[in-house]
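Final report, closing paragraph on structural work. Over the funding period we assembled a curated collection of sequence-structure pairs, and we close with a single example.
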Amino acid sequence: MREVREVIVVEGRYDSNALSQTVKAVILETAGFGVFNDRQKQKLLRTLAEKRGLIVLTDSDGAGFVIRSFLRSCVDPRLVKHAYIPDVYGKERRKSKPSKEGKLGVEGMPPEILLEALRRAGATFVGEEATQSGQPITKTDLYRLGLSGGEGSREKRLALLKALDLPERLTANALLDVLNAIMSREEFIRFVISIANSPPRREG
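Its predicted structure, as stored:
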């Protein structure tokens, strides 16, 4: 089992159970929105972030992004990495019906997807040396490639998110963080061009 140096923050115990079967790590639960009023847990998160760094791994629904946003406000963002699971529609086995948005949460993800989400976030796997990247991908690159600020940019950005199995709610800043963690600037430019040149997929 792979060991992750950073402390991983999830929403609840079912998420924690799923993740603990995938990696060896310190896993802390927010108790959903419970962390909003839990000053002791907020202080603990700040302490752990300073000592080990944090990786936030929440569901890809609206509630998950609200929790991420709150954690950005109470922990130094420089000490936090964000791992994202893809938008997958379905229902967890323990539940009688799907979630409000119909998306599977962290607990419903297979181990390989959770592992890939952590890798994309830039998790430090014990025993593996981190590779130093060159020139980073910037907002200017997104603009020049038609992914922001122009007509049709939203559709192009959604196509990129889909191709990378990332949630549609991802902000431009979060997208940049993920992109810089998983590929070089040159690889990114080639990838975007390949998507643009791919023929549209036929449904059915």
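Strands lie at 2-3, 7-10, 23-24, 27-29, 54-57, 80-83. The chain is about 40% helix and 10% strand. We thank the funder for supporting this effort.
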